[in-house]
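Weekly structure sync, notes
Attendees: PL, DS, HV (note-taker this week)

Item 1: Glycoside hydrolase family 1 protein
DS walked through the input record. Source organism listed as Lactococcus taiwanensis. Sequence as pasted into the shared doc:
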Amino acid sequence: MTFKNDFLWGGATAANQLEGAYNIEGKGLSVADAMPGGKERLNILASPGFDWTIDEKKYVYPNHFGIDHYHHFKEDIALFAEMGFKAYRFSIAWSRIFPQGDELTPNEAGLNFYDQLIDECLKYKIEPVITISHYEMPLHLAKVYGGWKNRDLIEFYVRYAQVLLERYQDKVKYWMTFNEINSATFFAGLSQGLVPSNGGDDKTNIFQAWHNQFVASAKTVNYGHQLNKDLQIGCMSIYSTTYSFDANPVNQIATQQSIQEFNYFCNDVQVRGAYPAFTERLHKKHGVKAELLKITDEDLSIIKSGTVDYIGFSYYMSTVESKTGEGVEASGNMVLGGVKNPFLKESEWGWAVDPDGLRYALNDLYGRYQVPLFIVENGLGAIDTVDNEGLINDDYRIDYLRRHIKAMNNAVEDGVELLGYTPWGCIDLVSASTGEMSKRYGFIYVDLDDEGNGTGARMKKKSFDWYKEVIASNGEKL
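Item 1 (cont.): predicted structure, written out as tokens:
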């Protein structure tokens, strides 16, 4: 293996999916707190009648409890340390710091929690890697301000980010501004707070929201660099390697355009500092009223100056594009869609398992942008069972991760600069797309079901000891 000695092996989570404690010690409600659990979660949020109202008589809200990491973080981080984590990627809940999002002063009780969490990581020499906004904007900003389409959110976000950067600049080196910012291509409710009832079905609003986020991100990067030149502030997006179903030029062009829209658009703005040449084509494709977009020369100057230091990205699957529809079968992927790849197997949730696609992704991103890369999410969501002896034998997860780590190594040998690897959901947590606990990713099992029943006890899976050895050997022992 060719991973460098300071390679950041670790794991990743998000505040809204594991912390719980959704309404204590001054925390305000977030958009995640208003998302019902279950496989219909995204369909509910996309329905015309959904207005971010919490209806506990009608729905279950698993994010309210998560896995109660808020009260168990010392136990959980001790388990991460036992595995040998070099880094722990987590997010800070915006509504725990600014409960409504538009206050002038932060909630000290919320900051105190993250003081303890960060110090607990540092006690074990675990590098904190913090996402400033991870699908958990204050609900007030979505309901009252209309989400990220409102330019007022730039000021609110930057104020929030500055509080974090000032407080933790000497303890936290690696930051990311927005989680999976390009997810709004398919569903804007998670990252932009936009649903049909507040304009989420109008692509003009989606592109305006993106622009506002680009400005907020660039301002944050500039502020962080002025504050402390050692801070590394990155962007974060989903990357899905996309293949054409066949050699038909129609499908080849469709594939290229799909890649530009999903994998490049947001990265181009945040890494290169300017909108790409194909932006006008995207506007036309989606019926965006470009003349209504509020984009100033000052905004563009800020975006140009506030480019990120690295690209963090999630990689779970590849997709296949077909416009001709000849000889294809629909993919089981309910998130990204596409058609089945006859050469790959799919997970229980229809996600194509494609380690070689990760090598492709790493080479593609590094070749295009020439900045360091950081795989901050990767993993296999699966139904894990506890056997009669109390063991969780998740060999399928070990196989998935082993193959992806080998692909990472191949990409490093190809010349890619890779900072680290933090597999997603290193401890079981609530799924973002479905609100389920049964869709598990972790090395650590948490005894809770989809309705929140269970003891909450933590148990090591077989993959726990396997990953511990991977880290100890710097990837040599797989």
